[in-house]
Specification:
56% helix
């Protein structure tokens, strides 16, 4: 699919893939805790801080002083936190289809950083 679309669209697709992974990480944590009680106090907060720290917006701002939303490949800090949290809180894989999520949750057009 990436070969049939331009770079901006390919980046938007990559964002959806990465946010899907964040969601699945949250679902895993939900079930790991429920079934095995393996999470320690602070684990989820640490995961949310990590998700926030590695958003494209934060990394670009830190590294180059400005953000270029069309070049994002992982999503904003807020999006990464939102999708991990959604997975953790619901534990339901049916609640996290980032490929069919409305543009308000994962915009793919110019200006989508302003959500």
């Amino acid at each position: 699919m990436r070969r049939r679309i331009d770079e901006r669209e390919a980046n938007a697709l990559s964002v959806r893939v990465e946010l899907q992974a964040d969601f699945f990480a949250g679902v895993w944590a939900h079930h790991a805790q429920r079934m095995k009680n393996i999470l320690e106090p602070g684990d989820i907060e640490s995961a949310l801080r990590a998700a926030s720290a590695i958003g494209d917006d934060r990394l670009q701002k830190k590294n180059q002083g400005y953000v270029v939303p069309d070049s994002f490949t992982h999503g904003t800090s807020a999006q990464r936190v939102r999708w991990f949290r959604r997975g953790f809180e619901t534990g339901d894989v049916e609640q996290g289809d980032t490929f069919n999520a409305p543009a308000a949750l994962i915009p793919a057009l110019p200006g989508w950083l302003d959500e």
